[in-house]
């Protein structure tokens, strides 16, 4: 194989010599751990039925229109692109998702037995959405920088069968270990670094019912939507204990809903349990995404 590495390789800290695959996990989960520590992402085809994904899409659009009706309900992530955080009770299939064996087992294998469910939301690039700048979702935590450990995961589920014209998600494999003082806010590499990401970029074309999981530190972007339809993607965020990303989100559940959950799911919820839900005002603002990229 031709070595296509660029002169920017020195910005990578490099992952651990061996991905920390726990003893006793299945071959499928071991493969997922290795992929997350090397490429930074992996998918599972056909995890849910198309009917389940159709219900998910309906709930996403209902939540989006509700969010648009109030100030702070939907956040811009570039031209014609929005992010909305929602409560678990707004998604009929939330329990199916967080209790899916692959989701549970991958989360535990990477983040530990006390992993935390910290985020539920969705991203919608509408027709006319532009290329985002290359970015990661938050600064690299010290445990990753010095300890070579991943402390968060983002699970993504598409609401449509993705095709090229829709502006697919693009991820630069292996870049979860990139670190440089030149990154703006620790998240946005400068444009002179873009050849590194273009060289490693892989576009993803998931279908309804598929799940993907990635390290949110892996450099990625949404691409331009040339089609006539939106491309909604659900986001489920997981943390290792102490990672702290729950502080950036306002997810909550009602007491009735919480009491209806199996204990194995309750054990991973760190959000408030309330008598009545309050609509979420978005606060995970990524300023560098507002104007789009190149």
Structural write-up:
This protein is of the alpha+beta class. The protein is built from 8 helices and 12 strands. It has helices at 27-38, 50-68, 94-98, 101-111, 142-147, 194-200, 255-260, 263-266, and strands spanning 41-44, 75-76, 81-85, 116-125, 152-158, 169-172, 201-203, 211-214, 220-222, 233-239, 253-254, 273-274. The strands form 3 sheets. A 7-stranded antiparallel sheet has the order 1-8-5-10-4-3-2, covered by helices on one side. A 3-stranded antiparallel sheet has the order 7-6-9. The chain is globular, with a radius of gyration of 18 Å. Residues 1-5 have low confidence and may be disordered.
Strand order of the largest sheet: 1-8-5-10-4-3-2
Mean pLDDT: 93
What is the helix fraction of residues, given as a range? 10-25%
**Count of extended strands:** 12
Can you write the helix and strand succession as a string? HEHEEHHEHEEHEEEEEHHE
The poorly predicted ranges are 1-5
Specify the overall morphology: globular
Biggest sheet features? 7 strands, antiparallel
Please give the radius of gyration in angstroms: 18 Å
Structural class: alpha+beta
What portion of the residues fall into strands of 2 or more residues? 15-25%
Distance between the termini: 30 Å
Tally of contiguous helical segments: 8
């Amino acid at each position: 194989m031709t070595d296509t590495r660029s002169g920017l390789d020195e910005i990578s800290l490099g992952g651990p010599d061996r991905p920390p695959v726990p003893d006793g996990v299945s071959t499928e989960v071991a493969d997922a751990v290795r992929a997350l520590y090397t490429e930074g992402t992996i998918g599972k085809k056909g995890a849910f039925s198309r009917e389940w994904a159709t219900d998910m899409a309906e709930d996403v659009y209902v939540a989006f229109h509700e969010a648009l009706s109030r100030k702070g309900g939907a956040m811009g992530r570039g031209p014609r692109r929005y992010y909305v955080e929602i409560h678990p009770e707004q998604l009929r299939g939330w329990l199916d998702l967080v209790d899916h064996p692959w989701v549970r087992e991958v989360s535990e294998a990477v983040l530990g037995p006390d992993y935390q469910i910290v985020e539920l939301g969705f991203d919608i690039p509408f027709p006319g959405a532009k290329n985002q700048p290359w970015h990661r979702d938050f600064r690299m935590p010290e445990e990753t920088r010095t300890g070579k450990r991943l402390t968060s995961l983002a699970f993504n589920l598409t609401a449509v069968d993705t095709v090229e014209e829709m502006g697919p998600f693009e991820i630069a494999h292996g870049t979860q270990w990139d670190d440089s003082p030149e990154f703006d806010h620790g998240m946005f590499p400068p444009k002179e670094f873009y050849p590194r990401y273009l060289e490693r970029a892989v576009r993803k074309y998931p279908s309804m019912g598929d799940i993907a999981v990635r390290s949110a530190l892996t450099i990625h972007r949404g691409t331009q939507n040339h089609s006539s339809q939106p491309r909604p993607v659900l986001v489920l965020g997981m943390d290792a204990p102490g990672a702290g990303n729950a502080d950036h989100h306002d997810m909550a559940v009602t007491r009735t809903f919480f009491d209806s959950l199996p204990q194995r799911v309750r054990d991973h919820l760190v959000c408030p349990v309330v008598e009545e839900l309050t609509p979420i005002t978005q606060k995970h603002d990524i300023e560098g995404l507002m104007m789009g990229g190149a």
